[in-house]
UniProtKB/TrEMBL annotation:
Source organism: Carya illinoinensis
Protein keywords: Coiled coil, Plant defense
Domain of life of the native organism: Eukaryota
Keyword presence, Coiled coil: yes
SMART domains the record matches: AAA
Coiled coil residues, start to end: 29-92
Record domain AAA+ ATPase: where: 171-304
GO molecular function annotation: ADP binding
Pfam families: LRR_RPS2, NB-ARC
Name of the protein this chain belongs to: AAA+ ATPase domain-containing protein
Keyword Coiled coil: yes
Length: 1200
């Protein structure tokens, strides 16, 4: 027949052209089909390469070119069409005994379509070789360059890679990094913390500095702050227990302890031996290995290689080194003097940046001649950087005062100390001083570094601090006492006589003199971990007549001798008692009583008319502020009254009450900064808030936790909780024009605040939280065509029970372009979040949480009026890392058309389940989640599938690490088999309260998977899955090389926990009817669970066999004897026996509440070879010898 067709094809070439062309499709049927297959395969390979580049770019924060996105969409569609067409052709051939016998018309049609499709694919292949698929947005360029300066160097990347691999190793809990001072350990730890957060390896990452004089309370406090944990205990031991409970209960917590000088017990701080990962750095390798137990993972950070050191120096020094040969020659010698240490290279290069040739020569000479006090080349480099600090002498003075403080110093403290000392020359207002300070510390000398925890704090490298301390004491008579073995005793009489600044952070603080004779002292600071019991006598300060700044923390102070030159007084956390003497300090311009125990603010404070800053924040016992005290402070610029419990008086000219009225603050014409919470909105006077406030944090209404740690970075914040009709006055409207953080809680209000605002009010808004407005059906439409939220980063909607749409109408695409976090909770009538036109602009979204929205049918919807055709609908959620969809009873899909899900909502059966078979993420050609780490799905009764059963080439979840699925009643399985190949980073699987019959579903019509591998999963939890029978139906082997914890509970249909695949195959062959075969939950081999430490089995009423005929590695491997109670009752000798079972890492076996199971363990052998006898009997009284399980440390058996 084929020969006939071939001859006919030749004849066709000689016939009339149109007819011949028609026939040629039939005659070239086979070649057209084969060409289509080949071209489709080529296109798939090209597509995979482009996808890999796109996803790598998205993870790196880059934007994808529009032509690349469109090409991928087109490829998706043509591959889908080609796959369908080839399947149709295959089916047509199957129905006929011979494909060649198809009628000519059908052959012509299929061949013509195949050729046309092949030509389209060929055209797409031409445009698939992209030189670049992405670009960096302009705003991200600076960050990228900064990273390239140091962390992109090969020697650093290798160490980072090693530590990140160790963090991913379930066998390793403690990791050590050691290296000489200044080599960059702390910088590298910040990079580890950044990557761990960015890649969502851990749910929480905390980093703290230990130092050579560890303060346990301080370390505990820093860790607790980062975990949002509050201590109720006073003792270090009590705080340690509380912290240990928090770290043990937390999931995937990373603790970084930087700069450890000597070994200590982690549990003294509250860090458990297990439950979290700990990374530690030290200068001493032995401290980490012998003292801290990091022998399994210890890394050394060496100095930079010669070429790396020069590249870093050249990059930091700027164009003068690159373009000026004379300078370049000297620069290479100076770079060599920096000895490959990043801290020296960076500080020196930036100090000499854009300097003249003469200065470069002088610098080289200084580095060549070491002074006796500066004992190493690195110290000499730091001294050189100090001497070349740009600006007036104030910069150097601030630097030296900074070095005398603790490891961290806040921006506020630096401002208050510097202003009190008069370091800002010719500046007389705090506003101007703040601007000046910001310009000084924002310089790029790298001597002051921004804290990784807060933009409001700075710190100094210990090498820099050591050099600065030497310079300060030698040249400026500034001394410091610390518990570091250098200066622990009080300075001698001669030193005190010439001392200008003294900071005490430890040492023999309790051996202080009764009276200090310091005639030149201008700055005195005490902050010791044991200073709470220190009581300073009245006459202590008599010899400090020139004192300008006094800062005391956690000290008992009964009175203070009149200090006639005192400018700044900070009594942070002090026990003060009666402070009526405060009125005698008439020169004060800054007064802070924050965290102190005062209950009544003395009237004498009203005498401090020069006061420009008053801080009463966190004075939890403060109840009384007398009338007319605050209004007397006519020069006040900044007022801090967060978290105080004062019952404000009523507004009026003759307020005779106990407390002042807030109306007094209206009389302070210079007040531009205020931080205050006002629980009762009735106390808010009219026109109190106005546009003169430039920096403000104002909380009106009874809001729990009015000011949180994470909000410190916002300088303009307003929180409103209203339970009455509240008329917005003009002042608040003016504040909103520049607001950064807005929180609205409008319980029972008749009219929303938002109705009184113009959309242009939100030009600088970064965080927007609105809740409890029962009357609002939609957030008001735009009154202008301006972009609504151009820089908004966090958007929270909560308890808006009548809200039907967030926005109605069209918004500019840029409206939410910077949005990173979107949370919607308990909005009962909300049907969807955004239209597709807005959703496509959410390219920076990192977290999406939608919870308890009873009417929501889809997260994003397409509408015809959007005017967007399918071909351009691809949505790249390139940054999305967390997706939480919880308690959404009507949710049909992530993306849908509005008409579709509205129709679906009405087509439900009696059980409330829709009839459609679409998956949650069925629009696979339009959705991309390359960075998704956490997927939490709970309470989604209409979802039958998470992923489509058919393989999808573009929908990849290779970054996914945690999956939580619960209360999804219609779900029949979690994974289709094809998706497992995309989940190489998966670490945790938890499924609960679902009706799944299997966890992994086979592809329909495909070949069953022979091996299911979960290479990185460490935790598996299957709870209350009443219909679950097996993990995967059919012949297979499942492997879990890193699984440490497994919990199976209330899966009542499971009868056999695990069986060897070989024995199961034998059973299938022996039994003709597969209906009588009891398939185990897992089919495994001897290497399936090599790392399992904890096995928890509970409430499995039908479970008869835990392990059946598993082949071990050798005769010494563990054996477990299992007896089924039901079979004992029917047969006297029936016993299921487990032979040679291998669990080399098992530590805990927990078995509880299983009616059908009898277990008898005998002669359990541990790792140390010692045998421990654990015997468990059932009511039958039968005892069998049996199980040897290596490493078992705990066996708990209950109610079997």
């Amino acid at each position: 027949m084929e020969i006939v067709i071939s001859i006919a094809a030749k004849i066709a070439e000689c016939t009339v052209a149109p007819f011949g062309q028609w026939l040629s499709y039939s005659f070239h049927y086979n070649s057209n089909i084969e060409n289509l297959k080949n071209q489709e395969e080529k296109l798939q390979h090209t597509q995979e390469r482009v996808i890999y580049s796109v996803e790598a770019a998205l993870r790196n924060g880059e934007e994808i070119y529009l032509d690349v996105s469109k090409w991928l969409t087109d490829v998706d569609r043509i591959i889908e069409l080609a796959t369908r067409k080839l399947r149709e052709i295959e089916e047509a051939g199957t129905k006929s005994s011979n494909a060649a016998c198809l009628n000519l018309k059908h052959r012509h049609q299929l061949s013509r379509e195949a050729k046309k499709m092949m030509e389209n694919i060929t055209e797409l292949l031409k445009f698939g070789n992209f030189d670049r698929v992405s670009y960096f947005p302009a705003s991200k360029g600076k960050k990228k360059t900064r990273k390239m300066d140091y962390m992109a160097m090969e020697s650093r990347m290798m160490v980072v890679k090693g530590i990140m691999e160790a963090l991913g190793n379930a066998e390793i809990d403690k990791i050590g990094l050691w290296g000489m001072p200044g080599v960059g350990k702390s910088t590298l730890m910040k990079e580890i913390a950044r990557q761990a957060k960015e890649e969502k390896l851990f749910t929480e990452v905390v980093m703290t500095n230990v130092t050579n004089n560890p303060d346990v309370r301080c370390i505990q406090g820093e860790i607790a702050d980062l975990l949002d944990l509050q201590f109720d205990q006073e003792t270090e031991k009590g705080r340690a227990n509380h912290l240990q409970q928090r770290l043990s209960k937390g999931k995937n917590i990373l603790v970084i302890l930087d700069d450890i000088w000597k070994a200590f017990d982690l549990q003294e701080i509250g860090i458990p031996s297990k439950g979290c990962k700990v990374v530690m750095t030290s200068r001493d390798r032995d401290v980490l290995i012998s003292g801290m137990g990091t022998q399994k993972a210890i890394h050394e950070l060496k100095i930079l290689r010669k070429e790396e050191a020069w590249n870093l120096f050249e990059e930091m020094a700027g164009d003068s080194v690159k373009d000026w040969p004379e300078v370049r020659g000297i620069a290479t010698k100076i770079a060599e003097k920096c000895a490959g240490l990043p801290i020296a290279l960076v500080t020196v290069s930036k100090a000499l940046k854009n300097k003249s040739l003469v200065i470069w020569k002088d610098a080289l000479m200084q580095l060549t001649r070491l002074t006796p006090e500066i004992w190493s080349p690195v110290d000499s480099c730091i001294q050189l950087s100090y001497e070349h600090l740009d600006g007036e002498e104030a910069v150097k003075s601030l630097f030296l005062f900074f070095a005398q403080q603790g490891y961290y110093i806040s921006y506020q403290d630096l401002l208050r100390y510097g202003f009190g000392l008069g370091l800002f020359l010719n500046i007389y207002t705090l506003k101007a001083a703040r601007n000046k300070l910001e310009s000084l510390v924002s310089g790029d000398s790298c001597l002051l570094l921004e804290s990784p925890h807060s933009s409001e704090k700075f710190y100094m490298h210990d090498l820099v601090r050591d050099v600065a301390t030497i310079i300060a004491s030698k040249n400026h008579n500034m001394f410091v006492m610390r518990d570091d073995g250098r200066q622990e005793a009080w300075p001698d009489v001669d030193a005190l006589n010439r001392c200008e600044a003294l900071s005490i952070h430890g040492g023999d603080i309790h051996k202080h003199p009764t009276k200090m004779e310091c005639p030149k002292l201008r700055f005195f600071h005490v902050n010791c971990k044991d200073s709470r019991n220190l009581k300073i006598p009245d006459i202590f300060f008599q010899g400090m007549e020139k004192l300008e700044v006094l800062s005391l923390r956690n000290i008992q102070l009964s009175s203070l001798f009149p200090l006639t030159k005192l400018q700044t007084l900070c009594l942070h956390g002090c026990m003060l008692g009666d402070i009526h003497w405060i009125g005698e300090l008439k020169t004060l311009v800054i007064l802070s009583l924050a965290y102190s125990d005062i209950s009544n603010l003395p009237r004498e404070i009203g005498l401090l008319t020069r006061l420009q800053l008053l801080d009463l924040s966190n004075c939890s016992r403060l109840r009384v502020i007398p009338p007319n005290v605050l209004s007397s402070l006519v020069n006040l610029e900044e007022l801090y009254m967060q978290k105080i419990n004062v019952q404000w008086g009523v507004e009026g000219p003759n307020n005779e009450g106990i407390n002042a009225s807030l109306a007094e603050l209206k009389e302070l014409s210079h007040l531009i900064t205020i931080e205050i919470d006002i629980p009762d909105a009735n106390n808010l006077p009219k026109d109190f808030l106005n546009e003169k406030f430039e920096r403000y944090k104002i909380c009106i209404g009874n809001i729990r936790d009015p000011f949180l740690l994470g909000e410190a970075a916002f300088s303009r914040m307003l929180k409103l909780k209203l339970n009455m009709s509240f008329q917005l006055d003009f002042g608040i409207k003016m504040l909103l024009e520049r607001i950064e953080y807005l929180y609205l809680d409008e319980l029972n209000t008749t009219k929303s605040v938002l109705y009184e605002l113009d959309r242009e009010d939100f030009r600088q808004l970064k965080h927007f939280h609105i809740q409890n407005n029962v009357n609002k059906k939609l957030i008001p439409e735009l009154k202008t065509q301006a972009v609504t939220f151009p820089i908004l980063e966090t958007f929270v909607l909560k308890d808006m029970i009548n809200l039907e749409e967030i926005y109605q109408g069209n918004l500019p695409l840029e409206s939410f372009r910077n949005l990173k976090v979107l949370k919607v909770e308990n909005c009962e009538k909300l049907r969807f979040i955004f239209s597709l036109s807005i959703a496509r602009g959410l390219s920076l979204l990192e977290e999406l949480n939608i919870i308890r929205c009873n009417n929501m049918g889809a997260i994003f919807v397409k509408e015809e009026e959007d005017g967007i055709k399918d071909q351009g609908d691809m949505m790249l959620f390139g940054r999305l890392q967390t997706l939480v969809l919880k308690d959404l009873p009507k949710l049909m899909g992530f993306l849908s058309t509005k008409d579709s899900f509205m129709t679906d909502c009405t087509e439900t059966n009696s059980e409330g389940n829709h009839d459609l078979q679409l998956s949650l993420l069925h629009h696979y050609d339009q959705l991309r989640f390359p960075s998704l780490r956490k997927l939490h799905l709970e309470g989604l009764p209409k979802i039958k599938h998470v992923w489509s059963k058919e393989p999808q080439r573009m929908l990849k979840f290779q970054a996914l690490q945690d999956i939580y699925v619960g209360k999804c009643e219609s779900l029949t399985s979690l994974f289709p088999a094809w998706v497992l190949g995309c989940l190489g980073q998966l670490k945790k699987i938890e499924i609960y309260d679902c009706r799944v019959e299997e966890i992994v579903a086979a592809e329909e019509g495909g070949v069953g998977a022979r091996t299911l591998v979960f290479p990185r999963v460490t935790s598996l939890n299957l709870t209350n899955l009443q219909r679950l029978k097996w993990f995967y139906k059919g012949m297979h082997v499942s492997k879990w090389p890193m699984l440490k914890e497994m919990k199976i509970e209330r899966c009542e249909e499971v009868e056999i926990f695990a069986s060897g695949v070989m024995s199961f195959e034998e059973t299938v062959e022996e039994i003709q009817s597969e209906m009588s075969i009891k398939q185990p939950l897992f089919l495994v081999n001897k290497r399936s669970f090599p790392s399992l430490e904890t096995l928890h089995i509970r409430n499995m009423d039908k479970l008869e066999i835990i392990f059946e005929k598993l082949e071990g590695q050798n005769s010494k491997e563990p054996q477990v004897s299992i007896i089924s109670r039901s079979e004992i009752e029917e047969s006297e000798a029936a016993t299921h026996f487990v032979s040679n079972l291998s669990f080399p890492s098992l530590e805990t076996l927990y078995i509880s509440n299983m009616d059908s199971l009898e277990i008898i363990f005998g002669e359990l052998e541990g790792q140390n070879g010692k045998e421990s006898q654990v015997l468990i009997f059932s009511g039958s009284g039968i005892e069998e010898n049996g199980a040897t399980i290596h490493s078992v440390s705990t066996v708990r058996i209950h109610s079997i």
